[in-house]
Amino acid sequence: MATLVTLAALAALSCAAAAPLNVLLVSTVSSPSHYIWTNALATGLLERGHRVTELVIRPPAVKHENRTSFVITAPTYGDEHGWDLEVTNVLSLWEEIPFFYSFCVESAKAAFESQAFTDLMKHLKEKKPKFDVFVLDFIMQEPMIGLNSVIGRVPVVAFTAFNMPEEVLQAMGSPFVASMLPFQGVGADGGVPMTFRERADNAFKWLTYKLYAHYVDRPRINQDIAKWFPGAPSLEELEKDLAISLVNTSPPLHGGMPTVPAVVEVGGLQAQPPKPLPKDLLDWVDAKNAPHGFIYMAFGTNVKAKMIRKERRDAILRAFGRLKQRVLWKYEDDDIHDKLPPNVKVAKWLPQNDILGHPNIRCFVSHNGGLSTQEASYHGVPIVGVPFFVDQIGYSHKIEKIGIGRRVHYQSITEDSFFETVFDVANNPKYRENMQKVRQALRDQKETPLERAVWYIEYAARTGGAPNLRSPGLQLRWYELYMLDLLGAALLAVVLFVWLVSRMVAAFVGLLFCTAPKRAKAKTQ
Ligand SMILES: *[C@@H]1O[C@H](CO)[C@@H](O)[C@H](O)[C@H]1NC(C)=O
């Protein structure tokens, strides 16, 4: 009987856990790579039986009966503005901050002004759907949190494909320990532990960004919220709805970073076991036809072929022509076909995850974006990193530090230097061996990052915002969190003490000098 009751209780529990949730998913960062991550998350939620209503920048590849998509069709930031690759990787901090924030501002503008946003707002106002949880691509698109006031303030799970940004830690009441945490997850050039100089740089960069965020960015975010969600509370108030943050880092690549439990590392959730390649690609990379293996080159979704200068492109092609391996290059333009050496094949789009998972691959020439670095690591493929901006630069330092690849400075690419680096990474076994260790560590987790992400979304919904995980840091002011008030009090005590002691010494010395003659006088009398 007891067993039966237990069984019934268990059955009820598992039903409750599996009760489908109504999820609002919003990801409007104007970068196709972020969509790859968002789509993996949406797919994970749908596979668990949840219903997803989403505002995103790409239509889903596969239709699903429980997925309602509002798709922003505006060109992405990179397509609209382009990037000058000759300068993006050598920006100073003073150039990098506006560069980064202009991307955020333009992304938000494109999203708010889109038909998809208008349609979603109309849908929410007319149909009044009830949501259990709001899953939001928060960093770089903070104003979208205003949607939570439209749907009645449900628990928010913030996520970002952009490493572990400091803004997330702040919003979750998790201290940013600048001695251990590289800014934005990858900031420290030499990795961790940081030297004195690196810690100084890291702290300076962090504080500069903080000042910019406080005086420029947060006021702008609040203006956007007031403009697009009339009557909505401020960012500071809406941030109280943040239950969980899913961040795109993982210990094998980033080290064990100190965070509160509401910050959940689900790095690389988009990396999946490979699916079979289409026939033409399979024939090209197969060991029968490519006995020395093959090399895959792709610069992600933001950097396009047309942005690469012709002389650099031609140097790269000549270097490839000298290799024994075959080469697959994701190249979006048609101006290259008559220049290709016989061992090089280009295509406008390539199934990256499946290519990286092919056993005959020898190395990956990459812009070292976060997602590409994770996918290469997941599949154990050494990297030649050619970083262009922001976190790519940090990742390229990281791969050298861990010994899983080498970095190339884009502006210094010559046929010889490029050939030498690619040859080394493709042929020297040490990179592959180190990469195998990272690969092993990435797979040695108690559940997959995607399962973990979905579990925490369900947890946030069923606990009404994960109150048990709330950080006490959220109730402290910034100087209390970092104990600056204590430090100030201690300094004041030391100063007072030194002052007191010096006054006493002075008084004593004064006493000695003033009274000695008096006593002498007294004796002679
Ligand atoms: C869609 O949702 C319904 C109700 O939540 C569920 O019964 C159904 O299995 C879902 N469909 C798919 C294909 O998952």
TrEMBL record:
Keywords of the record: Glycosyltransferase, Membrane, Signal, Transferase, Transmembrane, Transmembrane helix
Any signal peptide, and if so, which residues?
1-18
Top-level taxon of the source organism: Eukaryota
Q: Which GO terms describe its molecular function?
A: UDP-glycosyltransferase activity
Short name of any one Pfam family annotated for the protein: UDPGT
Q: Where are the transmembrane segments?
A: 486-513
Q: Which family, according to UniProt?
A: Belongs to the UDP-glycosyltransferase family.
What protein name is recorded for this chain?
2-hydroxyacylsphingosine 1-beta-galactosyltransferase-like
